[in-house]
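USER: If only I could read backbone structure tokens as easily as an amino acid sequence. It would mean a lot if you studied the pair and described how this chain folds. Here is the record:
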Amino acid sequence: MRKLSRALALTAIAGLGGCMWAPGQYMSPKQFAPGKTIEDGHIQLVTITPQLLASEHAASAAAALPTELLSYQPEPYRIGAGDTLYITIWDHPELTSPAGTQQQPAANGRLVRPDGTLFYPYVGVVEARGKTIEELRTIITQRIARVVESPQVDVSIIDYGSQRVTLQGAFVKTDRQPITATPLTLSQAIGAATVDPLRADLSGLVLTRAGRQYRLDLDALNRGDSNAPDIYLKAGDHLFLPYNDRKEVYVVGEVMRPQALNFKTTDMTLTQALGRVGGLNPQTSKGEAVYVIRGVEDMQQKPATIYHLNAKSPASYALASQFAVRPGDVVFVGPAGVTRWNRFVNQLLPLSNVINNAANTQDLLGR
């Protein structure tokens, strides 16, 4: 009886061993044919090939800045409520600096009231809101000419309080920035706010204008020898620079240090992702079983995609260095056959001990 039980145990081990299936996930490269896409339910399996990389690069190159942003050219500045003006009547300091010439310009400034008007001696109440500096200068010159012969009038703005650009997110300084008589560009606003270099997602800037959102990739626009073209900002524009704490790629499986990787640029290549975790485990990994699993929001409408790379070939590293992973991707490196077998045996040995003990017990009872 004892010999029969042990024979059954060995038969069970041999039968299970033929399956060569390790606990956990496993995908066989045999499912893939080079250059082809296979539908498997709601999963799309795609091999990483030069043709695939070429098509993805062409798609990214086609992405351009919105025409309406590039074509906008600022008009001459128009005065608004909250602006402070400094009005000079040459040779008449009593009008120009009623608070005294020793005072700061702000002490002699003229604030545009909430209703858009301002008061000036011998001129009266003037509707300033909506007028350019030159238009207001002409009005003041005409009115004060009734008391001042051949007046020489100059108007300047010493504090801009009416038109602002707001900023939020991963900036060091998020103070509102004024729109002035000198047009404000996107790069100037970002430079003044100072990007947080450690926490900012440089590829995710959002410019909101008149209720519409424009997503701008600062990293791509300024990559290599290219410089982003000037984009002029309007009053009321809102800039939001997201943090990169949710921009992660997850590297799991047979790598040296499985972990989640943050990145702040447009993308991270597969080579970079594997390099940051120490590379493939040389003892347990299977080079031809490298996968990038990319999900979608609605798998009923669009299949998720699994990209496969055969990393056993030296040429595969050239492909990996050109393949961009995206936030939320899972990079999975499968185990080698011997690794799966060793793990299988290690988990099966306790089971064989249980069978052996049961056989011994039954043998003793049979005696």
Remarks:
- The longest helix spans residues 337-366.
- Residues 1-25, 32-37 have pLDDT under 50 and may be disordered.
- Residues 138 and 153 are 8 Å apart (CA to CA).
